[in-house]
Amino acid sequence: MYSRRRARESALQILYGLDWVVRDTDVAIEDYWAKFAGEKPDGYDDVRKHCEELVRGVLDEKNKLDERLQATSHHWKMDRMSAVDRNILRLAAFELLYQGDAVPRKVAINEAVEIAKKFGNEDSSAFVNGILDRIAQERGTTPADEAAQREARVRAERRAPKAES
Questions:
Q1: Taking Cα atoms as reference points, which of 20, 113, 124, 125 lies closest to residue 81?
Q2: Is 22 within a domain?
Q3: What is the pLDDT of residues 105-154, one digit of tens each?
C-alpha cells in the first residue's frame, strides 16, 4: 500500500521547483527523487509512479488549468498567488477536472487543503478550499463522487443502531 498523499506532496515539490527553474521535466523528477525525497517510503515505486503521473498531467494541461483557476479566483492573478498555493491549486484542479472518474471531489479538495496547511501560509488552506470548491461545483458530479457517496451511505448504515423488530 502506498501513500497517495506522499505522491501529491512530492508532485507539489517538483512543480514548485519547476516554477522557479525552467528545466527538463525528466531531470527535475530525477533530481527530486535522488536529492530531496529522503528515505524511500513504503510503496516507493507506486508513490513515484503516481507522483510522475500528476506532475506530467499538470504540466500537459498547465495552460488550461491556469485559465480555469484565473477565471475562478476572482481578483487574483496567477502570478500574484504564492508559488505554493498556485501549484497546490494546479495539482488539485488537475485531479478534479482530468481525473474525476478516479478521484472524488471531496478527496481532491480535502487533500489539497491538508497539503496547503502543511506547505502554505496561514491563509492558504481557506484560499485553496474556496477556489477548488467553485471548480468542483462547476464540474458537476462524476462517477468517483457517486461511488464515494454510496460508500458513505453504507458506512452510515453500518454505524446506525438497528431497530428492533
A1: 124
A2: yes
A3: 899 999 999 999 999 999 999 999 999 999 998 887 777 777 777 887 88
The amino acid at residue 21 is V
Strands (E), 6-49: none
Distance, in Å, from the CA atom of 50 to the CA atom of 6, rounded to the nearest integer, reads 9
Domain with residue 99: its CATH number is 1.10.940.10
Using an 8 Å Cβ cutoff, are 25 and 56 in contact? yes
The three grid cell numbers given for residue 110, joined into one nine-digit string: 480535502
DSSP notation for 95-161: HHHHSTTTS-HHHHHHHHHHHHHHHS-TTHHHHHHHHHHHHHHHH---HHHHHHHHHHHHHHHHHSP
The cell numbers describing 40, all together, are 524511500
pTM: 0.85
In a shared domain, residues 42 and 94 = no
In a domain, 69, yes or no: no
Tell me, yes or no, whether 68 lies in a domain. Answer: no
